[in-house]
Amino acid sequence: MDRGRTNRKRGRCTEAAGGAGQNFRWVIFRIHEQEQELFRTIGEAARALGVPAYVVGGFVRDRLLGRASKDVDIVCVGSGIELARQTATRMNPQPRVSFYSRFGTAMLRYGDIEVEFVGARKESYRTDSRKPLVEEGTLEDDQNRRDFTINALAVSLNERDYGQIIDPFSGLLDLEHKIIRTPLEPGRTFSDDPLRMMRAIRFASQLKFTISEPTLEAIGEFRSRIRIVSRERIIAELQKMVESDPPSTGFKLLYDTGLLHLTFPEMVALQGVERRNGIGHKDNFYHTLQVLDNLAANTGNVWLRWAAILHDIGKPPTKRFEEGAGWTFHGHEVVGARMVPGIFQRLKLPMDHRMKYVKKLVTLHLRPISLTNENITDSAIRRLLFDAGDDIDDLMLLCEADITSKNPKKVARYLANYDMVRQKLLEVEEKDRLRNWQPPISGELIMSTFNIRPSREVGIIKNAIREGILDGIIQNEYDSAFEFMLRKGEELGLTPQQSSPHNGHTPPE
């Protein structure tokens, strides 16, 4: 049995100077001065209205863990809207209050702190929706509806017991022991609101906590309930797992509980090792998680982390066994890049430049390793610089993170190869200036030089100039490109209107 069903006998209040959870004492005068003033003001407003008020939830948890928090939730046994209004009148300058009468909540900003007020409530759920039926309740009712014991902690702002922690579910002990546990029976908690299953894993990932065994088992048992949760809410939790360090924690828990199978099946398809003729391939699911963790150790860029998650996503559909060669995944980078937009759309990730960035990195992630040959040409380096543009440094980070060998000598050799590629990239970039390069001859200049309209010939000449520069046939500068344009035009039977090198145009700087 989970402790939450019996721990009410332990008492509800922990004094600021002692009680259960000695390592997590709430010392009201140790919080920031701005927060002290805020809580005094809310306490005074609550007394004026004759309603008890409490700080609850995430702010209490984070403060006890020493984590920064700028979101404060206030629960009162009465009208949260009236308490917000009364609080605002006592502030100078008086903040604007946003009222959400439909939900019985109000919100105001106090400096850089966002404060939400709500009346204590009791909730009940239908089986086909995670939207609760709400009625007025007590503080106890409000704590009962919380998702986890560490989020059910409350701190009194009332004169009689100001600063005391109200902890009906031993949340302080769970903070000390780093445990995620539901206040009530976990099956009921997750059936009522299935998003809490994602939140349990997200908190475990963010806080480096362990999910209690009964809670974890209930996630597996009730995982199918996640189907009633919107994609937007699911991806919001998944994004926070991706941002965690290490991010693999969340994905392993999602896989083990079966939630990943229902929310991200393309990633699950990476798991497993198939053997044929005694030859096996690596488990690409766990390889992907190792790449993700390797990358996360060097960058907080969430979209670069998504590129790590998706870099091998094209391997399952391209897997083949070839006699004499073993397992192959030819073209998986191309197939994977084609899969990226569909995955982003289904997961409700942004379909904008961030998706294109991830798609580009998936497309290019094998290119740098092909440039580790000592005899590689400057032309190949130019093409990578041209294709990657300003994302070349991120691409190199991804490629280095893709080294997951357990053999330290292999790792050292691969890293040395990438150092060589980086040096070549620097040398060619310094000489040819190809990062985010635009050809020195525009389509407009081609049309005006030969007095032609937009046509196939314009595209042929533009492509020839680009390829000539990338291949090192001509220099990456205006005059060389202009002369090359004239030659290509003549080959196509076009006649220039003027013979001047600049043709009446000023070359770009």
State the main characteristics:
509 residues, alpha+beta, eight-stranded mixed β-sheet, two-stranded antiparallel ribbon, 23 helices, 48% helix, disordered N terminus
Low-confidence stretches: 1-29
Distance between the termini: 74 Å
Rg is 30 Å
**How many distinct helices?**
23
Give the fraction of residues assigned to helices: 40-55%
Could you tell me the strand content as a percent range? 5-15%
Assembly annotation: single chain
User: How many β strands by DSSP?
Assistant: 16
Largest sheet: 8 strands, mixed
Mean pLDDT: 87
Strand order of the largest sheet: 1-10-9-2-3-6-5-4
Coarse structural class? alpha+beta
What overall form do the CA principal axes indicate?
Answer: elongated
Structure description:
The chain has 509 residues and is α+β, with helices and mostly antiparallel strands. It has helices at residues 33-49, 58-64, 80-89, 139-144, 171-177, 186-192, 195-207, 213-221, 231-243, 248-257, 259-263, 265-268, 284-296, 302-310, 315-318, 332-347, 353-364, 378-388, 392-401, 408-432, 443-450, 456-470, 478-491; strands at 13-14, 53-56, 71-76, 97-100, 105-110, 113-119, 121-124, 133-136, 154-156, 165-166, 179-180, 210-211, 275-276, 279-280, 320-322, 326-328. Strands 1-10-9-2-3-6-5-4 form an eight-stranded mixed sheet. Helix 13 crosses helix 19 (392-401) and helix 14 (302-310) crosses helix 17 (353-364). The longest helix has 25 residues, at 408-432. Mean pLDDT is 87; it is low at 1-29.
